[in-house]
Amino acid sequence: MIGMRVSGALLAVGLAAGAVGWTTTAQRPADRVAVAAVQREEPPQETVTVLVEQPLPNVPGKTFTSAIVDFPPGSRAVPHRHGQAFVYAYVLNGAVRSQLEGQPVQTYSAGQNWVEPPGAHHVLTENTSATEPAKLLVVFISNTGDPIRVAD
User: What is the pLDDT of residue 37?
Assistant: First the structure.
């Protein structure tokens, strides 16, 4: 697979070189070497779909938000915080590896859940599978007007 990527990158460099006037290798000066830049792909990120966002009528200044978080295969969230929100997460399907700063890495499978205290720093959240998606139901109790997620 890596060989195919390198071959593809070399082919792309060769085509680009031809487009700028390098018509054959024999015409290229010996001290000029075509170098293929191999780009490292970043893992895909999760998507968040807010289901309900409702101020709590009996708790002034607080909002209840529920969301579905979809993790494509091999995806990883950037480190983030949820401000002063209390967070509850439930794994609907797949498995998710999670770590709060200062805590050990935990893996949660479908049917398992966890909570995050206000101010927690979420340093790792990723789908454990390279082939299957994972999905969470996440509930936030936050200060009204605060964003539910802030990337580092």
Answer: 53
